[in-house]
Amino acid sequence: MPRFSIIVPSHGVAGRLPLALDSVLAQSFGDFELIPVCDAPDAPAASVAAGYAERDSRVTPVHSPPSAGLAGARNTGLRAATGAYLLFLDGDDTLAPGALTALDARLAETGEVDVLYAEHERTPWWEGEPVNPAAPLLARAPKGAFVPAETPRVTGVQLPAWSAAYRRAFLTEHELAFPAGHFTDVGFGGLVTLRAERVAVLRQVVVRHLLRRQGSRLNLPVGHHGELLDQTELVLTQAAGVSAADARPGALFEELFAVVLKTAAHPARLPGSARRAFFRRAGALYRRHRPAGFRRPGGKLGVQHRLLAAGAYTAFRALRGAHRKASVAAQRVPRPRGLRTRLYYRRQLHRRIDPHLAVFCAYWGRGYACNPAAIHAKAAELAPHIRSVFLVEPDQAHTVPEGVDHAVIGSRRYWQLLARAKYLVNNANFADGVVKREGSVHVQTQHGTPLKKMGVDQSTYPVVAAATGSFTKLLGRVDRWDHNLSSNTHSTHVWERAFPGSYEHLEYGYPRNDVFYTATAEDVARVRRQLGVPEGSTAVLYAPTHRDYRTGFDPGLDLEAFCEAVGEDVVVLLRAHYFYDRGARPSTGRIIDVTGHRSTEDVCLAADALVTDYSSIMFDYANLDRPIVVYADDWDVYTETRGVYFDLMAAPPGPVARTPEELARVFHDGSYADDGSAALRAAFRARFCQFDDGRAAERVVRRVLLGQPPEAIPPVRPLTERVPAPAAAPLVRS
After folding, report:
1. How far is residue 489's CA from residue 272's CA, in Å, rounded to a whole number?
2. What is the tens place of the pLDDT at every residue in 622-636?
3. Which residues pair with 539 in a beta bridge?
């Protein structure tokens, strides 16, 4: 039997789950079992937990459906546990270094106890000093083990479930489990307090709790606050059977109603008429369960007790200043440039949202491209009742395909569309001045799988952070998102950390990559002719990424020398990062500059092989199952200045070359397309091409524009059943 069982629910925190699991496995005290609780075997967190289980036999994942909630997940872990003591750790929290050693030492001092309460830190998600709210409470407890009735103020109502270690036999004997519903910690903590016979405290931080940027779900203005009263009633009903000489019921009553009164007075939690109904029911519970001889607290809290007991809602509302309405004016002030434009946009915001209007934009208006363009095209097919308008910069208006309605960014029509559109789809972000209207739906499609650090993860890299600008403004834009696309679970986890928000992840794949499974040999030949690829030649796409520590475009490779070294049948398609798209460059010899070509997907279809450094194009191109070579001449510098999410050198999609000579050699000897290269590519595709199967755009249109439920969305086809578009040169096929 292990000393400890650590139970870690993981719903909605797959991106941070590795931090929680690492904090447990890094403990110097090793006698434990770690039980991650995942939604299902195919849930985002399940693959994370499975990877840890493969590496460490102490990790034993279990599954609990999302419908069972946090209580169900913890109870599932509790049933699977075999340890002497149980700890509950939220999936986005961490165990402090040395926590298990300290708990074990304290239990050795006190002997067997039912509950060992410990201190915890609440850490702001971004910046600020951690606080230790449990310290004042636990400081009043006796030094050794004690009977709860002797120190009734130390209860589980004031402490979260993860701020204690529980003797498993005690929970089993009294059939204690987490009650269903929200506020389960309140119910569980109260029931444990009533049943415990011997407890102790540890005056040391054991858990570091992350305060989420979105705040606690329990504080949101939705219909779950009545469940707080359910938990209160559950505990007080059990307390009625405790001896009248025991001080615990009185202490629990006061602490429970401190939580109830705080909620009753909070306008953001209980808007409008819901607050009156909550107050009325709370008053009935108060009168029914008030212990004999209970003395109300003094001061304003005591006045609130009196008003609750009397059912005097109007007086209570006046006392707490509930007439004050939360001001949201600052968030709703439009900020386009120019007084006339601001006034015009403000007027448009007061007009009704057009339920059949969708606005699309890609790369800050650079043209009709990427995921927004693919969704736009599919919407015309599946949702013809939706009027779709693409937004472009003035100098890109001429590039919009014929038949595509478009508006110029900054024009009066542009602001009118943004004010009235039901659906807003972008692969970057709309301007800061755009207001998120109630009822509108913002879809963030992203434009690549992240290798380099993104979002707030860039904050520790000075060069990148300086270029990013205000992270506060960035997160303000994130708050407008309703949906965020992912093409693999790696991306889902990264977006969760890099762009913390309350949006829904859509693991549907990238719509722009659909063409890699729908294009025909005729399509490939047509694109090659358009780009000027000589018939019978091998086209190598060279696509280097942007360097934050450089100014201007530097190809980083002598392409003419490369062509000379690899053979006369090779041509290079040069695709610079879109930051350096300044129109077509003159093609010279066997170098064809395709940077200005509208469609990256077309360029990939035309290429027989890809050479890139750290560009996200490798993740998209891998769908074609064609050779990829990584040219990593400055990997160490890049990782130091930009930061990356995984070691590409340890898991590349093909051979890695660090010098021009090595790069020429893998093409000259054919190893770029041999069995070893194919094996690397297969592993890479399995990891990063999870959801790209040719139907991503359809899934987005059906889910977002047509409002179909998740269960009606076409499932992702297994990788083994997908057939990529054929390459022009069969010799490079694996």
Report:
1. 40
2. 999 999 999 999 899
3. 571
Distance CA 452, CA 449 (A): 9
Q: Yes or no: say if 248 and 239 are a contact pair by the CB < 8 Å rule.
A: yes
Tell me the C-alpha distance between 302 and 297, whole Å. Answer: 5
445/506 Cα distance (integer angstroms): 9
Q: What is the pLDDT of residues 503-530, one digit of tens each?
A: 999 999 999 999 999 999 999 999 999 9
User: How many whole angstroms separate alpha carbon 206 and alpha carbon 186?
Assistant: 20
Nearest alpha carbon to residue 430 among 500, 473, 477, 479: 477
Single-letter amino acid, residue 43: A
Q: Name every residue whose Cβ is closer than 8 Å to that of residue 477 and which is 6 or more positions away in sequence.
A: 429, 430, 432
CA–CA distance, 186 with 158 (Å, rounded to integer): 8
What is the C-alpha to C-alpha distance for residues 579 and 582, in angstroms, rounded to an integer? 8
Sheet holding 199-211, edge to edge: 62-63, 32-38, 4-9, 85-88, 164-167, 115-124, 199-211, 94-95
Q: Read off the amino acid at residue 226.
A: G
Do the bridges between strand 483-485 and strand 504-506 make them parallel or antiparallel, or are there none, so unpaired? parallel
Closest CA to 88 of 200, 24, 163, 173: 163
**Looking at residue 36, what DSSP letter applies?**
E
Q: Which of 155-169, 461-475, 492-506 has the lowest average pLDDT?
A: 461-475
Alpha-helix runs per DSSP H in 469-567: 471-478, 489-498, 515-518, 521-531, 559-566
pTM: 0.72
- Burial class of residue 579 in the structure, from the number of CB atoms within 10 Å of its CB (0-12 exposed, 13-18 middle, 19+ buried): exposed
What's the DSSP call for residue 486? Answer: -
Q: What are the residues whose beta carbons fall under 8 Å from the beta carbon of 156, sequence distance 6 or more?
A: 115, 117, 164, 185, 188, 189, 190, 192, 193
C-alpha 732/C-alpha 625 separation (Å) is 9
Please measure the distance between the N-terminal and C-terminal CA atoms of the chain and give it in whole angstroms: 50
Lookup: tokens for 89: 């750790």
- DSSP state letter for 452: B
**H-helix or E-strand spanning residue 539:** strand 538-543
Strand partners, 610: 541, 628
DSSP H/E element including 213 = none
Q: How many residues does the chain have?
A: 734
Q: What is the CA radius of gyration of the chain?
A: 30
Q: Which residue has the tokens 């000259």?
A: 668
